[in-house]
Amino acid sequence: xxxxxxxxxxxxxxxxxxxxxxxxxxxxxxxxxxxxxxxxxxxxxxxxxxxxxxxxxxxxxxxxxxxxxxxxxxxxxxxxxxxxxxxxxxxxxxxxxxxxxxxxxxxxxxxxxxxxxxxxxxxxxxxxxxxxxxxxxxxxxxxxxxxxxxxxxxxxxxxxxxxxxxxxxxxxxxxxxxxxxxxxxxxxxxxxxxxxxxxxxxxxxxxxxxxxxxxxxxxxxxxxxxxxxxxxxxxxxxxxxxxxxxxxxxxxxxxxxxxxxxxxxxxxxxxxxxxxxxxxxxxx
Length: 284
Description:
Blueprint: E1 2-3, E2 39-44, E3 55-62, E4 82-88, E5 94-97, E6 107-111, E7 117-125, E8 137-145, E9 160-163, E10 166-171, E11 182-189, E12 198-199, E13 206-212, E14 218-225, E15 234-235, E16 238-239, E17 242-244, E18 249-254, E19 260-270, E20 273-283
Parallel strand pairs: 14-17
Antiparallel strand pairs: 1-14, 2-3, 3-6, 4-5, 4-7, 7-8, 9-10, 10-11, 11-18, 12-19, 13-14, 13-19, 15-16, 19-20
């Protein structure tokens, strides 16, 4: 499970005496600079890109002590490498990739942005720097896509949807609340009405990617199959891991950090294709 947190450490504003002091009243506190942290560096291209045309993104993760991060977690589960997630600011479209990492730490990924407008970029990073480092952290950037940008309003919640012939039916609790572990269940049928068979996609049977309208806060969990390795998520002793033990059934865990309107992008591989089912969710 992942939340986007700003990957910079600094001085808490509520702490008295932090920062430059109060020169107006003749008080001077210690000059405290911003703490060094991981940074997303060199995201290119910097100029606007053409919708529908392949474009190669490049960047690296700069370490607090300097130099690119070159060691990332590996394995069969989803908690590895870097999840590179791009979402249009109005939450109308999403792209999800796992870019390969070069020996020098450069991450490279070719994508096609389907529509014009500002796109929010999240690099969800799993470093391999020893037992005392964070399991993962998130860094953000921006890509502009040429053309007129006409933001689309989020659609109302629709429990039943058909995506490319596959049918999704979602059941949710009567009320969704922030900071409360909850689960939704989804029945998935293929075009012939049979329970869908899910194939492992980036280490999980399904990815549940959440973005909050406006702030673009981010949350991401996985649906794990029976016997899946390194897939489960546990936060403060609370399990929010989704499960799928029978064809056509997904149980998705969620623990969103704040109230508001959230867009869930549920991604799974069915019959050799990646299917994304979008849901608008109100969280109190």
